[in-house]
Amino acid sequence: MKESLVISDALVQKYNLPVPRYTSYPTVPYWHEHIGVHDWKQNVQQQFLIHNSTKGISLYIHLPFCESLCTYCGCNKKITTNHKVEDEYLIAIEKEWELYKALMHEKPVIREIHLGGGTPTFFSPQNLERLITNILKDAIVHPLHEFSIEGHPNNTTKEHLETLYNLGFRRISYGVQDNDPKVQRVINRIQPIENVARTTAIARAIGFTSVNYDLIYGLPLQTVESITTTILQTIQLKPDRIAFYSYAHVPWTSKAQRLFDEHDLPPAEVKLQLYKKGKELLTQSGYCDIGMDHFALQHDELYKARLDGTLHRNFMGYTTQHAGMLIGVKSISALIFKT
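^ that's the sequence the OP posted. Answer follows.
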C-alpha cells in the first residue's frame, strides 16, 4: 500500500476554510436543480432496472430519536424520552418503503443496510426486528450483503445485539467521540469508558465481525494531552475500524452548538495538532490510514480493499461493497444514486 501523503502545516493553514460535507458529490450546496415527481419516479425505475439484478441496492434508514441532546451534534435528530414514537415512526417508514417498492418491477436485491441516526438503539430490539423483517420480507438478500448499525454504548443491550445478529448484522459502529470527563460534560454526552468496553465485548462474543468507533477531534476543551488519553484507551479496546472525524462547528444550523462557549474550541493550529497526534498514535499501533478520516487494522476488509483497489465510498462512508443504487428512507437526502 502506498505511504500516506505528508502535508505541511503551511499547506493546511492555507486551505483552512469551511467547506461543505464531503459525503456526496457534488456537495449539497451545489444541488440547485429540482426534479419533478414524474421525472423522479422515472429515474428511480431506470436506476433500479440497471443495478438491481447485477450489483443490488443499498438502503440507509434514518432513525432520528435520542433521549438526550449532544451539543456537538449536527445530525437530523429528535430529542425525546417517549418511546411511543417508535411505533408511529415505523409505520411511516413502512409506508415509504411501499412507495419505493411500487416503482420496482421485481424483488429488490438488498446488498447493504445501514441504520443511522439519531440513536438507532433508541428503538427496542423488537421494533428493530420489525423494521428489518418488513424490509426483507419481499426482497432478496444478496449473498455478499453487509448490514450495519450505529449504537450508543450507554443503551445498546445484549438483546439488541443478539436480535441484530440474528437478522444478519455483522457490523456495529459506536459513537465514542471522546473519553475525557470534562469534554463529555460540555458536549452533554456522559459515557464511561466501561460502557464502551462492555458493549464492544458483548458484540464480539455474539459474533459481530467488525466493531467501529467514532472519535471526534476539535471538540471544546480538548487538548493534545486529553486526545492522547482517549486514543490510547481506544487502542486498548482494539476496534477493527476507527473514524476520526473533524468537529464541524455550524451553530447557524445546529443551535445546540451555541450551548457551549466558542472560546473553549481549540484554535486551528491546536486542532491540527490533535489530528496529527491521533493519527500518529493510531498508525504506531497498527492502524492503517484508509483515507480522509478512517483507520483500520490489517485484518479488516477496508484495509484489504484499499490494497487491492476495490475500496468504495458512498453516502454511508467507506465500504467494500459497490451497490449500484442507494436509497435513503427517512434520511436527510431522499435518494442518491451511485454508479
